[in-house]
């Protein structure tokens, strides 16, 4: 689009320059010819006055022309200094034979009767011609010479003709100067138009590009703030995009959650209903206790699912952070490890934390703790009894490496999906599948990233990347 605009502007100005060139050049040539015919008429009238008895009389005329040709003067015309006459004159008799030439006396006696300026003038017509000739001042170059003739008339009889001739390149310098100035002006205007056009293009395209990036981020499931576009019309469009996004997300959110929640709760509800029906029948105390424990376990599973859904819903509906503060990551990790100490001690896990008191980040403490706790808890659940967990920093990221079985290939691209969960190695049970979704939402709110991958030395590694301070 921009290239097309540049091409159109360039083509327009080149056409304008071509039209100016084609228009100004003929005007200049007409002006030159007009002056030359007037001069030729003046000179032919002088000879006619001297030749009253029917014979060409050039005495006095030669002295006039010679004096004028050799006279020096100084005239500053614009930025060009003129110091001598730059035209020539030759005179022919009624047969077209040269009898006088102001610039080249060797031409005297030559027959010019076939030259258009002479032939037409001697027959009572207007005679003028333009001829390309060798430039005597610059060997090897050719110049265009204008010839304009006027008849010498005495008592109605044509006795000869006076031709004024001039090299166009000498006077043409004025036209070339105007042409150069016009070119410079046209180039300057072209650059100004192009610059202004590019500014307008950027002013229009940049908001559209921001809206496109915003829409693509939302399409890919990312979190993005409504772009500030600086124009009322563009701001209205951005708000319309945001309202449409919220409406579509809200509808899709409800549909997806209702379907998934129904599917997830269906299994524990069936188990509770089956256990309740069996409790109505006579049974031993041992079986009675087992069914009661089953009901409690499935009820806790439903409660956990609902709590996690509420947490995730609260985070997903937030557009940004609320109370940010500098957070010492060491303190946060130690708090999480203290809270998970019952699980760690029960499974006899070895936790190696490479602390660094200098590591601080800015964010919302509650959310960061919620996200990192999910990652450490996952590591504890997937690490076998007496296994190890290694927690360490690398630049702007926190790494949590466990000794578990790693991530199966089929699950590598789905671990952050809502309600997607893998069986725990020791219990064979699945979680709510919402923990990692919460972690990703927290990372997005902090303009960071989270990755879960297999480690080169075995096991899985979770990486929470913080935004550089």
Automatic annotation (TrEMBL):
<dbReference type="InterPro" id="IPR036097">
    <property type="entry name" value="HisK_dim/P_sf"/>
</dbReference>
<keyword id="KW-1003">Cell membrane</keyword>
<dbReference type="InterPro" id="IPR029151">
    <property type="entry name" value="Sensor-like_sf"/>
</dbReference>
<dbReference type="Pfam" id="PF02518">
    <property type="entry name" value="HATPase_c"/>
</dbReference>
<dbReference type="InterPro" id="IPR050428">
    <property type="entry name" value="TCS_sensor_his_kinase"/>
</dbReference>
<keyword id="KW-0902">Two-component regulatory system</keyword>
<dbReference type="Pfam" id="PF00672">
    <property type="entry name" value="HAMP"/>
</dbReference>
<feature type="domain" description="HAMP">
    <location>
        <begin position="202"/>
        <end position="253"/>
    </location>
</feature>
<dbReference type="InterPro" id="IPR005467">
    <property type="entry name" value="His_kinase_dom"/>
</dbReference>
<dbReference type="InterPro" id="IPR003661">
    <property type="entry name" value="HisK_dim/P_dom"/>
</dbReference>
<dbReference type="GO" id="GO:0005886">
    <property type="term" value="C:plasma membrane"/>
</dbReference>
<dbReference type="InterPro" id="IPR004358">
    <property type="entry name" value="Sig_transdc_His_kin-like_C"/>
</dbReference>
<dbReference type="Pfam" id="PF00512">
    <property type="entry name" value="HisKA"/>
</dbReference>
<dbReference type="InterPro" id="IPR003594">
    <property type="entry name" value="HATPase_dom"/>
</dbReference>
<protein>
    <recommendedName>
        <fullName>histidine kinase</fullName>
        <ecNumber>2.7.13.3</ecNumber>
    </recommendedName>
</protein>
<keyword id="KW-0472">Membrane</keyword>
<keyword id="KW-0418">Kinase</keyword>
<keyword id="KW-1133">Transmembrane helix</keyword>
<keyword id="KW-0808">Transferase</keyword>
<dbReference type="GO" id="GO:0000155">
    <property type="term" value="F:phosphorelay sensor kinase activity"/>
</dbReference>
<dbReference type="InterPro" id="IPR003660">
    <property type="entry name" value="HAMP_dom"/>
</dbReference>
<keyword id="KW-0597">Phosphoprotein</keyword>
<feature type="domain" description="Histidine kinase">
    <location>
        <begin position="260"/>
        <end position="469"/>
    </location>
</feature>
<keyword id="KW-0812">Transmembrane</keyword>
<dbReference type="InterPro" id="IPR036890">
    <property type="entry name" value="HATPase_C_sf"/>
</dbReference>
């Amino acid at each position: 689009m921009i290239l097309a605009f540049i091409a159109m502007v360039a083509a327009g100005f080149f056409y304008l320059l071509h039209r100016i060139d084609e228009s100004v050049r003929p005007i200049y040539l007409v002006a030159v010819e007009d002056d030359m015919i007037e001069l030729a008429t003046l000179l032919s009238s002088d000879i006619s006055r001297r030749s009253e008895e029917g014979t060409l009389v050039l005495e006095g005329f030669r002295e006039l022309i010679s004096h004028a040709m050799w006279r020096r003067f100084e005239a500053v015309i614009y930025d060009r200094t003129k110091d001598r006459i730059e035209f020539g004159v030759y005179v022919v008799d009624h047969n077209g034979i040269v009898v006088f030439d102001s610039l080249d006396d060797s031409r005297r006696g030559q027959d010019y009767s076939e030259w258009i300026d002479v032939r037409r003038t001697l027959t009572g017509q207007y005679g003028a011609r333009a001829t390309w000739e060798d430039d005597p001042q610059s060997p090897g170059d050719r110049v265009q010479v204008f010839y304009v003739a006027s008849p010498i008339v005495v008592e109605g009889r044509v006795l000869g003709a006076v031709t004024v001739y001039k090299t166009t390149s000498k006077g043409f310098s004025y036209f070339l100067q105007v042409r150069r100035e016009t070119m410079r002006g046209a180039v300057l205007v072209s650059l100004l138009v192009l610059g202004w056009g590019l500014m307008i293009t950027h002013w229009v395209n940049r908001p559209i590009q921001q809206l496109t990036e915003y829409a693509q981020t939302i399409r890919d499931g990312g979190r993005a703030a409504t772009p500030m576009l600086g124009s009322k019309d563009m701001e209205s469009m951005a708000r319309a995009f945001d309202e449409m996004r919220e409406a579509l997300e809200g509808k899709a959110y409800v549909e997806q959650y209702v379907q998934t929640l129904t599917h997830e709760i269906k299994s524990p509800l069936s188990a509770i209903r089956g256990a309740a029906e069996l409790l109505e029948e006579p049974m031993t105390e041992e079986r009675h206790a087992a069914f009661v424990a089953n009901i409690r376990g499935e009820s806790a599973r439903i409660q956990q699912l609902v709590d996690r859904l509420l947490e995730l819903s609260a985070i997903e509906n937030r557009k940004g952070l609320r109370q940010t503060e500098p957070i010492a990551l060491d303190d946060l990790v130690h708090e999480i490890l203290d809270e998970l100490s019952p699980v760690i001690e029960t499974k006899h896990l070895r936790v190696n934390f490479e602390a660094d008191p200098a590591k601080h980040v800015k964010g919302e403490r509650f959310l960061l703790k919620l996200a990192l706790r999910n990652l450490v808890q996952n590591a504890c659940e997937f690490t076998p009894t007496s296994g190890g967990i290694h927690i360490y920093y690398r630049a702007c990221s926190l790494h949590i490496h466990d000794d578990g079985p790693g991530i199966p290939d089929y699950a590598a691209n789905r671990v952050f999906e809502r309600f997607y969960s893998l069986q725990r190695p020791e219990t064979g049970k699945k979680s709510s599948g919402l923990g990692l979704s919460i972690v990703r939402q927290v990372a997005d709110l902090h303009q960071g990233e989270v990755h879960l991958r297999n480690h080169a030395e075995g096991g899985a590694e979770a990486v929470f990347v913080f935004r550089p301070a």
